[in-house]
Design brief:
By secondary structure, this protein is mainly alpha-helical. 45% of the residues lie in helices and 5% in strands. α5 runs antiparallel to α6, α6 runs parallel beside α9 and α17 runs antiparallel to α20.
Length: 540
């Protein structure tokens, strides 16, 4: 068990046992009989911060930590952007056939508001003006603001308009129990403002106050947090660049000047653990796929495998070096063993999207045994204590390449940024297993096979590499695809689908939001999977 996991466990135990302490009564206590002695008036900031960080990976520190990954990250996003395919092999897969699943649509809204963002709101309240920790835990406060941006930007990217400015204010002096929905443009403007202020306010000389022990991401390293803040600023600025280039120009320039990720050493990883509880500390993606636990099928999409195998499907000479990192081969995976059947790169085969068993049989021309036919996600990336990645240096370099190509924020050197982004993306998998390495020579050969701006138009190449970079981080791959249009995916048209045969571009709101009098589908744009969010060209 890691030091931070032990800390979280001890804090949880302390909170639980602390509620059992009995206090003797005397006459001096009579004046306090109208006060609930078990009411929480002071909450350990370290506990809340660690819990919020852990919840940001795999969806929730309270409850099933695989829920959002299983339902939404995998079930919608991983299938919709054709990294994964299902073929009716079980699990939850609305993104494979464009169907509706209420849990998939509701999971981010329920868990992120009800868990991670709630914890962060309490930290900001207690460390702000009038809070019991006012003036204390200041680096934790700024880091919490950065994490809050990360979570809210994920949430608005899923749905578009969401409660933001009045959200999570039920404990305020003047609580708002039914928050209004805000325009995505206003939300993004405030998220960028928050990043600008929080990164500037981080202070390496401030007292630690437990920050280094409670910080799962960077162990209290303020410089690393600052880099992540500016890297998120770059991501958010580029996310809105198609609809507000003036703002994108300003914040891309600020992010670069402030200092974004400079190597894979800066990547934002969440260290997971086997114990003490599988529901909080284990990797939710791994648990969602593991047979006998989540049981979500782990077959790779034909679109992805064909792309990794390159222009010549019958030669390994032009393969992407990530082919046999992402693929563990055609294999039999049971609760007790992962048994490769065929690990020859030439024979790797992806499952077509949008098929049931009959569709697979018809497509292949034989009775398909999926286990013996299609490539699976590499088992070496699927252990329950695998680290969980939130953002990486490869993405940053690819975004800089796009910015340079489009003349945004004064960035130059598109090809150099692109090549650095491809290299970093290929060489970032060793935290899963030391064997998942790609040497410099393999990267150089790949870049020579597919020269920048020659093999395809430059922006298309950047978009495709962003898509590939986000394997496992499928909600972000979905957002990149919705914004760039790359790669050019072919939609499926499974009978009875919800989208008339178009790839979903947002989530539906949870049905319980009908109880919020401020929820009005006519003002939140049509509540359909086909409605574009603002930054993708939809109405605000």
């Amino acid at each position: 068990m890691t030091k931070n996991m032990k800390l979280l466990y001890k804090m949880l135990c302390a909170l639980l046992t602390g509620g059992l302490v009995m206090v003797s009564c005397n006459t001096d206590d009579l004046q306090n009989l109208d006060i609930n002695p078990q009411a929480v008036t002071e909450i350990d900031m370290n506990f809340l911060f660690t819990a919020a960080q852990l919840g940001a990976a795999s969806g929730g520190s309270a409850g099933d930590n695989r829920f959002i990954d299983w339902r939404t990250n995998i079930g919608m996003c991983g299938y919709a952007i054709q990294h994964l395919a299902n073929g009716g092999q079980g699990g939850i897969f609305p993104g494979d056939r464009y169907t509706h699943n209420a849990e998939t649509a509701a999971a981010p809204f329920q868990f992120m508001y009800g868990d991670q963002l709630k914890n962060i709101a309490e930290i900001l309240k207690q460390t702000g003006t009038g809070g019991f920790a006012e003036g204390q835990n200041q680096n934790m406060r700024q880091a919490s603001r950065i994490l809050r941006v990360f979570l809210f930007h994920r949430l608005t990217d899923y749905y578009g308009r969401i409660p933001y400015f009045e959200a999570l204010s039920a404990t305020a002096t003047e609580p708002v129990f039914f928050p209004s929905y805000d325009n995505q443009s206003a939300i993004y403007a405030d998220l960028l403002k928050e990043l600008s202020e929080a990164t500037a306010a981080l202070n390496s000389s401030a007292p630690d106050e437990g920050f280094s022990d409670s910080d799962l991401y960077y162990g209290g390293d303020v410089d690393k947090w600052r880099k992540w803040g500016y890297s998120l600023m770059l991501r958010l600025a580029m996310r809105i660049s198609n609809v507000d280039q003036a703002t994108a120009d300003s914040f891309v320039s600020q992010a670069v000047s402030g200092g974004v990720f400079a190597s894979n050493d800066d990547n934002t990883w969440v260290q997971m653990d086997i114990g003490p509880s599988e529901w909080q500390n284990q990797n939710g993606i791994s648990r969602a796929f593991f047979p006998g636990d989540g049981g979500q099928p782990s077959y790779l999409s034909k679109t992805l495998v064909d792309w990794l195998k390159g222009d010549d499907q019958n030669s390994v000479a032009d393969d992407d070096p990530r082919l046999m990192i992402i693929s563990g081969g055609i294999a039999d995976w049971t609760p007790t063993d992962f048994t490769p059947i065929d690990v020859n790169p030439l024979n790797q085969k992806g499952m077509p999207n949008g098929k049931d068993q009959a569709g697979l049989d018809d497509f292949e021309g034989f009775a398909v045994d999926a286990r013996a036919t299609y490539s699976r996600i590499n088992f070496l990336m699927m252990q329950d204590d695998e680290p969980y990645q939130l953002m990486n240096y490869g993405e940053v370099e690819l975004l800089l390449a796009e910015a340079a190509e489009r003349g945004i924020g004064g960035v130059t050197g598109a090809q150099a940024h692109y090549e650095a982004g491809v290299k970093a993306s290929m060489q970032m998998y060793t935290p899963y297993d030391a064997s998942l390495t790609v040497d410099d020579a393999a990267v150089t050969a790949y870049l020579a096979n597919y020269p920048y701006g020659v093999a395809k138009p430059a922006l298309e190449m950047v978009g495709e590499q962003l898509w590939m970079n986000k394997f496992l981080n499928w909600w972000e791959a979905w957002s990149d695809w919705r914004r760039t249009g790359f790669p050019q995916l072919t939609a499926v048209d499974f009978p009875g689908n919800e989208t008339n045969g178009t790839i979903p571009v947002r989530l539906r709101y949870p049905t319980e939001e009908i109880a919020n009098p401020n929820f009005d589908p006519t003002k939140t744009t049509p509540d359909e999977y086909t409605t574009l969010v603002w930054w993708a060209g939809g109405t605000d």
